[in-house]
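tool=predict chain=A
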Amino acid sequence: MADNRNLSVGGYRFYTEKDAQLAAEELKKIEYLEARIDYSRPDSILTVYEKTIHERIFKTPVGMQYLKKLRDYLLERPEIDPERVPEIPLYQSFSGVIRERSNPAKNRIQTKDGGKDGFKISVILNVLLILAVAAMFTITIRSDNPNILNYKRVITDKYAQWEQELTERENAVRERERELKLNGNDELFTE
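tool=predict ok
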């Protein structure tokens, strides 16, 4: 276990160094807010209070203590309706049972059956993606346009086609030359 001085933050002794570091970060956030907060404007304090609760900025007792201070201040102000000041939510269990759904992001994606539908959908989407990739490779390989997968075959076929056309043209030219020579020789002899 780490040194006890590293585990103490804001009058609290934490069990792990990670929790103590989180509390120290929250203490810095509190100092930042205190330097910029205007206590003459209770509505702005209420906005900051609601935002810190909504975004779960404070999780340790150090942060909760600061939220309690802000809440008490807001409840003392006559211009703030006590109904508008939300209670401070605690996201941990004190009976030793860990709460399964402490994160709102997890709550949005969890289903009644514990995420089995999400798993099925994930598997189906993965299979569809694999089929799509296989189809793309098949189309690419069978394509007549040169690409990284079939460039050698396409270029070889194209040169073979050019060679065949050239051979056919040469043969046609030679044939024509022979015809002209034969006809030309006949004319030479007939004159």
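The chain has seven helices and two strands. Residues 26 and 183 are 106 Å apart (CA to CA).
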